[in-house]
What we know:
The protein is of the alpha/beta class. It folds into 2 domains: 1-324, Rossmann fold (3-Layer(aba) Sandwich); 327-379, no CATH class. Helices cover 38% and strands 16% of the residues. The protein is built from 16 helices and 13 strands. The protein has helices spanning 10-27, 42-50, 53-56, 76-86, 109-114, 125-134, 151-164, 179-187, 200-206, 212-218, 229-244, 264-273, 304-308, 327-331, 363-370, 373-379, and strands at 35-41, 61-68, 91-95, 119-121, 139-146, 169-175, 195-198, 222-224, 250-252, 274-276, 279-282, 286-289, 293-295. The strands form 4 sheets. The chain has a 5-stranded parallel beta sheet with strand order 2-1-7-8-9. Helix 7 (151-164) packs across helix 12 (264-273). The longest helix is centred in the first third of the chain and has 18 residues, at 10-27.
Amino acid sequence: MRYVEEFRDPMAARALLAAISRVTDDIGATADHPVRIMEICGGHTHAIFRYGLDRLTPPGLEFIHGPGCPVCVLPMSRVDECVELAERPEVVFTTFGDAMRVPGTKKSLMQAKAEGADIRMVYSPLDALELARRHPDREVVFFGLGFETTTPSTALSIRQAAREGLSNFSVFANHITVPPPIKALLDDPHMVLDGFVGPGHVSMVIGTRPYEFIARDYGKPIVVAGFEPLDLLQSVLMVLEMIRDGKAEVQNQYGRVVPQDGNPVSLAAIEDVYEPRPSFEWRGLGEIDASGLSIRERYRAFDAEAKFGIGYGAGPRHVEEPEGCACGLVMTGRIKPTACPQFGKGCTPEMPLGALMVSSEGACAAYWQYGGARAMEAAE
């Protein structure tokens, strides 16, 4: 039995930090020419700032925050379509709480709810299924959102709805996959990255094999990491050691949770219900081929896009970001949140301009919540 204290032990953390400093020196990295490691997952970004790892690690190491927040990468056009669905009088629109305050071009789901739309926060798509059972006279739509972590639960809910014949249940599918945006970042000639800390929760589902192209085709090391401070420090050390030794491999620090081949039950459910979209728009990254998932023809009765004639079912629709909003630059690691001219001024948690300030995995929210004086100074 392992307890969380084992992964927050100060003595072990000091030993790992000392090793990180030694390897960083061996590489010859400095504050002017740091080793740039991207943590893909927004949960890792928040853990780094919550535990102050960005301040404890040496100046020759720079954390680059990646597009690993599914709420953050959702383009404004999809938020607008959520509001459009939710405002239909026959619809009960259900969503995870993270998405409620993400702004669209005119309003957020929270504002639509305040204006009378029947929008309900749920903890699981199973909650939406139960609402469909209780309200057969209403169309219950679940906002299917997230990476491979949450995709299986939505897929299993669709299968359950099909078994029960719940014709008033559908999913507005916005599930996306991790490997394609990593490839898009690596193909960007302006992006300089030395290695990756890979997502732990996603990898519980897909395993580690889908990341092999990063090492094989691009020569970059990646270590799948857990979420406690010692997990992250050990993972960073493993990446640095591979860089020092001239290796490019996929390694798994989170072996206590992540199997090499993933979760076969979850993968089978995804394969049964979903198929890759030809392309999907990502905030800050644009259209990425085969990066999103759509519901297969045999489950089309539960596809809100087909049922209500919106979204990609009606043709893709691009919406420009608000003037001065730098979400795309932050999410792709080109700038830090505090470099955005709107940070703490036109964009705060109370009045967000972009999704990164309101999501529990957003980089701007992490800087605001845990950045302390540094964030306040940048906002002045």
